[in-house]
Amino acid sequence: MNSMAVKERDASAGGVEISKADDMQQHALTDGFHLVIDALKLNGINTIYDVPGIPISDLLRMAQAEGMRVISFRHEQNAGNAAAIAGFLTKKPGVCMTVSAPGFLNGLTALANATTNCWPMILISGSSEREIVDLQQGDYEEMDQLAIAKPLCKAAFRILHAEDIGIGVARAIRAAVSGRPGGVYLDLPAKLLGQVMDAAAGQKSLVKVIDPAPAQIPAPSAIQRALDVLKSAKRPLIILGKGAAYAQVDDEIRALVEKSGIPFLQMSMAKGLLPDTHPQSAGAARSTVLKQSDVVLLIGARLNWLLSHGKGKTWGEPGTQKFIQIDIEPREMDSNVEIAAPVVGDIGSCVSALLAAMGNNWAPPPAEWIATISEKKEANIAKMASRLKKNSMPMDFHSALGLLRTVIKERPDAILVNEGANTLDLARGVIDMYQPRKRLDVGTWGVMGIGMGFAVAAAVETGKPVLAIEGDSAFGFSGMEVETICRYNLPVCIVIFNNNGIYKGTDVNPTGGPDVAPMVFVKDARYDKMMEAFGGVGVHVTTPDELYRAVSEAMDSGKPTLVNAVIDPAAGSESGNIGSLNPQSALTKK
Ligand code: ADP
Ligand code: TZD
Ligand code: MG
User: Fold this and answer.
1) Which is the CATH superfamily of the domain at 389-579?
2) Cβ contact 299:238 at 8 Å
3) Which of 162, 244, 288, 327 could form a disulfide with 240 if both were Cys (CB 3.0 to 4.6 A apart)?
4) Which atom of ligand 2 is nearest to the CA of 470?
5) Which CATH number among 3.30.70.3270, 3.40.50.970, 3.40.50.11460, 3.30.70.920 corresponds to the domain 7-205?
6) pTM tops 0.90
């Protein structure tokens, strides 16, 4: 209640005759602004990522005055990405606030991306006069935002009356985090924010969401079926996805993996759930285990394009592999191939049930299978080690990444943000992760532009140092937020892998005309100067040693730093490691 704006109504105004009792009973009032803030705070949401403007500027000022953390960005997409990754890191919906029409649209990409990745987020946008919007009479920033948001998120709501703010915010929170998490849009017309109501009634109208993501217990028969399939395996494999990282049941997952003795793969953002250096990790034998396993247990990982849809060249002969899948979303089952044992429920409950049902005499997988994997792993690790040691000049991706791998090894609790093509694919393979939810990247869509939004939120939500390894193209999508990083003085070190372009910096215009080729940028650009422009530290490096020194120093000092790392423009390959997805021109095919 003390956070309510209490305005005293002037009861003796205007010479109106009023009774003594009325005179004494002065009404405390509140308004839409304060009810929104109170509703968020009541539910433990204490940070807003935003870009200000009409009609939310005052809301943001009041939120800060009421003790909320308000982080203003330079573009809504970055604020939205920050909110989305805050949701992944905390299991609470991250909140992004924007102005109407263009601000809303700028935030929408991040909302759609959050939904695609199953991360809880709420995009709250101010909107203009309903009556004018619906008659299309041309209001300031007019747009039917609710209708536009609906197909791009998990749920969308609009609140028209101050007394509904409590229930509206509660619905948004529950929709975002229950079941399969996702993005929620909440439309707040400007008029709502100014609505006034009795403060006590307002306080009563607020809703603290009880058990926002209730446990979903798997059926015992589903657990038994899964165990029967697993027991039949000669060459079992566990795949951990970012749903497993999100669930925050790290100890249970580790217990299941270790009790079973089954080799495991971790999807990109699940890396570190168990250390990549764990003896059961099959990361360095990925293609072998995908092809040769006979039973695959998926935990919070979808059989989408990132796993080649569970079929084709990457996998074994059709019919030779069985899948067990743990997921909270029943409709995920059989999305690409038959799931022999669907286990529907929350990962914590499912993993605990499996563990209990396994008993104490679980037989480890056949020694032959483990030996096959070990051999492959050793060979691949040795091959990689020699590439990482190469001290090529100019640096290639591997020689640079070899040192950044050490930076993370020395600081296992630091957070790694990563985007680009070669810069992403190679860093994912080279840099071992040691703790859960420390690797944040382009996710399910492979979207560029998440870098600075993720870096800001990672620093704000965890207080840990952040290392953002960015392709020069990828960085450009959110690069202006270096000002935000400096403004809030966040412990973020950005490393730009500067190869003068997208994938490579060597393309030329075949016509010899004045325009450069579509994939290249200004040669030898000095991104480090961008950081210096806002008071941060800028460093230009050309050797692995310089890179290691600059990054270590930045990670230890916590000062906003941008390291411009010069990478051989010829070193990259087309589309990183997913060149196979490029359609081939019938005319230029080799
Ligand atoms: P990756 O890209 O790492 O393979 P995906 O995003 O494809 O991971 O898959 C994550 C899966 O995890 C989604 O299908 C989602 O429904 C599921 N999921 C998310 N949170 C939970 C949870 N708490 N319990 C069960 N499943 C979850
Ligand atoms: N736009 C968006 C929003 N997402 C995308 N994934 C792309 C465009 C296409 N794209 C990629 O898939 S990677 C990439 C683009 C533009 C940039 C690759 O260049 P880079 O990395 O400099 O970041 P490397 O190290 O040069 O390969
Ligand atoms: Mg590049």
Assistant:
1) Thiamin diphosphate (ThDP)-binding fold, Pyr/PP domains (3.40.50.970)
2) yes
3) 244
4) 23
5) 3.40.50.970
6) yes
* Contact (Cβ atoms closer than 8 angstroms) between residue 565 and residue 497: yes
- Do 7-205 and 389-579 come out as alike in CATH topology? yes
Compute how many other C-beta atoms are within 10 angstroms of the C-beta atom of residue 421. 25
Q: What is the pLDDT of residues 185-235, one digit of tens each?
A: 999 999 999 999 999 999 999 999 999 999 999 999 999 999 999 999 999
pLDDT, tens digit, 9 for 90 and up, residues 510-539:
999 999 999 999 999 999 999 999 999 999
CA distance 149 to 33: 23
Q: How far is the CA of 518 from the centre of ligand 2 (A)?
A: 13
Domain boundaries, the chain: 7-205, 220-373, 389-579
- From 115, 240, 327, 428, the mutation candidate for ligand 1 (largest count of ligand atoms within 8 A of CB) is 327
Closest CA to 301 of 278, 279, 273, 261: 273
Inter-residue contact 34 to 192 (CB < 8 Å):
no
What the block records as the tokens of 432 is 């071992």
Helix axes 544-557, 397-410, angle to 10 degrees: 30
Residue 176: which of 159, 161, 156 has the closest Cα? 156
Pick the CATH number of 220-373 from 3.20.20.70, 3.40.640.10, 3.40.50.720, 3.40.50.1220: 3.40.50.1220
Residue 364 DSSP label: P
Closest atom of ligand 2 to 471 CA is 23
- Ligand 2 pocket mutation pick from 419, 424, 473 by most atoms within 8 angstroms of CB: 473
In this structure, the residue with its CA closest to atom 13 of ligand 2 is: 421
Q: What b/e string do you get for 281-297 counting C-beta neighbours within 10 Å, with b at 16 or more? A: bbbbbeebbbebbbbbb
- Please indicate whether residue 119, judged by its CB atom, sits closer than 6 Å to ligand 1: no
